[in-house]
Amino acid sequence: VQLVESGGGLVQPGGSLRLSCAASRVARSSYVMRWYRQGPEKERELVASISSAGGSTNYADSVKGRFTISINNAKNTVYLQMNSLKPEDTAVYYCYAEMGFLSYWGQGTQVTVSS
Asked: Is residue 45 a contact partner of residue 26, using CB atoms and an 8 Å limit?
């Protein structure tokens, strides 16, 4: 399984970005996808997660109401819509897939929120 992220970039505070993570060679029909992020001199933290089966979602308190995770099972792609971005959202965002006993990481995409 390969995970390829896209959609990062530079945005002003209050702006929006949408991250995508496309998974290739997926053999399972049921899996969990997560977005993590790691800011400068910070530990990696879980941002949001979604299951492919029922679409149930979870969010970190810091992004609730601003970020939305969604999944397109036909395309094996997970999205992270980020609205009302703040400077503290600046980080490298990583896609993570949990498929049975195996897990995979994407290469990360930089999100910078700055005026």
From this structure: no
d(Cα 102, Cα 43) in Å, to the nearest integer? 23
**Structure tokens that stand for 33 in this block:** 């996808």
Segment 81-114, tens digit of pLDDT: 999 999 999 999 999 999 888 999 999 999 999 9
CB 91 within 8 A of CB 109: no
The backbone torsions φ and ψ at residue 39, rounded to the nearest 5 degrees and listed phi first, read -85, 170
Strand partners, 26: none
In whole angstroms, how far apart are CA 83 and each of 14, 66, 67, 76? 7, 5, 6, 23
